[in-house]
């Protein structure tokens, strides 16, 4: 049992509700610019909210009952249904991974809320451009083109960790009673859930960009952060044997896979010999995975490098490209990082790679 988990449960439940609750009425289908896909976004949001609130209510009941009426016959009977035989309320606790998950959800929800407030009635769950729509470049939109999706991604990652980590009712109840099947199906469900979210975002972003470009034209071009790929005929230098976009994609994919393996090995410890054998191939000894002084320095280097890169994106705006070229209306930037060093972007990149190798 972990009484300190109660505030985390309430905060995460509210955070998920904020993320999945549309601040504006549903847009009629004839006014939408793209279909939601196999499942209506409102239905999907309702399922997420309902599932999380039910899960939160169960955890609150288990912890609250252990605090206020541990000897109650009704509580003991309910506990017998909710947790495996022989398991007590101490199985529901605030582990380091659920704490990280709670932070991700709360931060993601905060970003989403700021986006709701900034766009007002023009923030819709359905892709459309409403009458009187204005291009917003303040608040979160001053730092990213699609900050609401950034918040959603953080919240989705937090939700998956919250459900899958030790101390979660779903994880504790299923892996104890479901054996191998639960140990495989739960992570698989988390992967499918995440992939559905990613696929939906990748479908929506290009459509939203196209609509905004059609609506606002040059204003959108000037205001929009980092640019898409430059056509080959407009590049002033060749990328080399491997295109810069392909290399970037490979680097991101490898980094995310590495992070996912470490998270699964550290966070997901199922009571299943088969799954344990599979994880042993990925990382034989989980105790070998820890934050050493070297990895601490590496993390700091990558964070600093990323901040330098991001600051450069802000300074250059739409004129920052991964390909060597000079865009129309290009102006020489000598402010910010460019007042200190000629190529700050490469400085950040060197720090990133050095940290990555460490």
UniProtKB/TrEMBL annotation:
GO terms for biological process: methylation. It catalyses: [protein]-C-terminal S-[(2E,6E)-farnesyl]-L-cysteine + S-adenosyl-L-methionine = [protein]-C-terminal S-[(2E,6E)-farnesyl]-L-cysteine methyl ester + S-adenosyl-L-homocysteine. One of its GO terms (molecular function) is protein C-terminal S-isoprenylcysteine carboxyl O-methyltransferase activity. The keyword Membrane applies. The keyword Transferase applies. Keywords: Endoplasmic reticulum, Membrane, Methyltransferase, S-adenosyl-L-methionine, Transferase, Transmembrane, Transmembrane helix. It is found in: Endoplasmic reticulum membrane; Membrane. Its main location: endoplasmic reticulum. The chain crosses the membrane at residues 92-115, 148-169, 181-202, 242-261, 289-308. Its EC number is 2.1.1.100. It is a multi-pass membrane protein. GO terms for cellular component: endoplasmic reticulum membrane. Gene3D superfamilies: 1.20.120.1630. Pfam families: ICMT. Belongs to the class VI-like SAM-binding methyltransferase superfamily. Isoprenylcysteine carboxyl methyltransferase family. This is Protein-S-isoprenylcysteine O-methyltransferase.
């Amino acid at each position: 049992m972990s009484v300190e988990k109660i505030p985390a449960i309430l905060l995460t439940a509210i955070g998920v509700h904020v993320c999945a609750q549309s601040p504006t009425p549903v847009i009629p289908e004839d006014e939408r610019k793209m279909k939601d896909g196999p499942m209506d976004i409102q239905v999907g949001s309702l399922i997420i909210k309902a599932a999380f609130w039910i899960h939160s209510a169960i955890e609150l009941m288990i912890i609250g009952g252990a605090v206020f009426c541990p000897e109650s016959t009704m509580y003991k009977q309910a506990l017998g249904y909710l947790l495996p035989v022989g398991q007590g309320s101490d199985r529901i606790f605030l582990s380091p991974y659920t704490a990280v998950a709670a932070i991700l959800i709360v931060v993601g929800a905060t970003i989403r809320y700021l986006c709701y407030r900034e766009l007002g009635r023009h923030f819709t769950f359905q892709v459309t451009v409403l009458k009187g729509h204005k291009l917003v470049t303040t608040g979160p939109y001053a730092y990213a083109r699609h900050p609401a999706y950034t918040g959603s991604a953080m919240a989705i990652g937090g939700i998956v960790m919250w459900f899958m980590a030790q101390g979660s009712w779903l994880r504790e109840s299923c892996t104890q009673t479901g054996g191998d099947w639960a140990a495989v199906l739960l992570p698989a469900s988390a992967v499918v859930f995440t992939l559905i979210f990613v696929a939906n975002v990748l479908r929506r972003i290009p459509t939203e960009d196209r609509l905004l470009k059609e609506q606002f034209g040059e204003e959108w071009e000037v205001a929009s952060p980092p640019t898409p790929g430059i056509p080959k005929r407009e590049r002033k230098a060749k990328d080399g044997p491997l295109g810069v976009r392909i290399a970037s994609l490979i680097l991101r994919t490898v980094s995310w896979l590495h992070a996912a393996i470490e998270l699964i090995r550290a966070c997901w410890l199922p009571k299943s010999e088969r799954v344990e054998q599979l994880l042993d191939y990925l990382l034989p000894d989980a105790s070998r995975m820890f934050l050493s002084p070297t990895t601490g320095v590496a993390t700091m280097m990558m964070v600093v490098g990323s901040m330098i890169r991001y600051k450069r994106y802000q300074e250059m705006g739409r004129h920052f490209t991964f390909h060597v070229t000079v865009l129309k209306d290009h102006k020489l930037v000598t402010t910010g990082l460019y007042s200190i060093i000629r190529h700050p972007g490469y400085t950040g990149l060197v720090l990133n790679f050095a940290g990555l190798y460490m």
